[in-house]
Amino acid sequence: MKFGVLVPHFGQWTSRETLIDNAPVIEQMGFHSLWVRDHLVWKPHEMEGQDRTFLEPLLTLAALSAVTKKMMLGTAVLIPIRWPLKLAQNLATLSYLSEGRVMAGMGLGSNEAEFAAAGLDKDRRIPILEETLEICRRVWQEDSVSYQGEIFEFEDFTLRPKPAAPIPFLYGGSTRAAARRAVTLTEGWIPGRIPIDTLKDRLTYIQRLCREQQKEILLGTIPLVLADPDRRRARESIDIQALGVSSAGARHWVTPASGGFNTVDDLEGLLVAGDRSDCLRSIETFARLRLELVILDVRLGYSHYMQQLEWLAEWVISEFGD
To answer: How far apart are CA 168 and CA 218, in angstroms?
Structure first.
C-alpha cells in the first residue's frame, strides 16, 4: 500500500514555508506522493475555517516538484474548467519538469459557480470532462491532432514536450456514477470522504464492471485523518454531525447499521482518528479491501501538520508502506 499526503495549499495554515520547506522532509519520511485539491470559487467547509486562501494546484505541484526527487505529484481532483489543450500542456510540462512524476485525478466538481466563472456551461460538464480526457490523451501521444467534438474543436495541434512518462487519469467521487466513470473513462478511482459501507458497495460495483470490461484500475481512497497519541483528545475534537454531511455525495451514502452517522465509529472509512492502534485498525481495513493508494487528508490537523505526518509515518508506513 502506498501513502500520499494532501498538502495545505488552502486555508489559514497555507504558507510557502509549510509547503516548500517541508516537502523534502515528507519525502524522507517515506510517503509516496503529494496531492492538491482544485477550486476556482472556493467556500471553505465549516471544518476549514473562514480563510479563503487557495493556491492554484498545478503551480503548487510545480513548486513541489523542484524540491523533491521521487515522490509522485497528484491532483485530487481537478475539475473540468480548463481549456483541454491548456490542461494538456500544463500537465505535460509538470511531467517534463518532474521527470514523469504526475498522476491526474479528475472529477466533475459540485460548485456550479465555478463553471460559470470559467465561462462554461455546468449542464454540459459531463461531455466537457469526457472530451477533456480524450483530447489530453491524443495530444500526449500524437502530433498534428485535429479534433471536432460537441464542446471543443481545433486543427493541426502538436504538443511539445510530450509527458516524460504516461500520466494516469484517476476519477474522484463517491457515487455509483462516479465509480462507473472511473472504470469507463480513467485508470483509477480515488474517492474522498467515503464511509466504509459505501466504499465496500462501490468496490463491489467496480470489480463487476472491471470484469465485464476486462480492465484493471488503481483503487484508492482519501480519508480525513487526525492522529494523536492521546486517543481521547483526537476523537473528542471531531464534529461528527458536520462530517456526516460533509461531502456532496453524502445523500448517496449507505447508512450505517446504527441508523445514522452519530458516533466517530459510524464515520469509519471516511475518518481515521485516534492513536496508533486506531490508525492501524483503520488502515488494516483498507488493506483487506486491497486498496493500493491511501491519500491522507490531514486538514483537521494542519495546525500541527508535520507532527501529524511524523506520527503517521512511524505508525502506518512502518507497518503497511510499500
So the answer is: 10
234 to 239, 278, 297, 307: CA distances (angstroms):
11, 10, 15, 13
- Coil, helix or strand at residue 49: coil
The pTM assigned to this predicted structure is 0.97
Q: pLDDT (tens digit, 9 = 90+) per residue, 162-200? A: 999 999 999 999 999 999 999 999 999 999 999 999 999
Alpha helices in 32-141 (DSSP H): 57-67, 84-98, 112-117, 125-141
User: With contact defined as beta carbons under 8 Å apart, do 100 and 163 qualify?
Assistant: yes
Mean pLDDT value across the chain: 96
Distance CA 36, CA 126 (A): 22
What are the residues facing 218 on neighbouring strands?
188
The string over 225-257, giving b where at least 16 C-beta atoms fall within 10 Å of a residue's C-beta and e elsewhere, is: bbbbeeeeebbeebebeebbebbbbbebbeebe
CA dist., res. 113 & res. 81, Å (int): 11
Question: What number of CA atoms fall less than 13 Å from residue 55's CA on the CB side?
Answer: 24
pLDDT digits (tens, 9 = 90+) for 50-108: 999 999 999 999 999 999 999 999 999 999 999 999 999 999 999 999 999 999 999 99
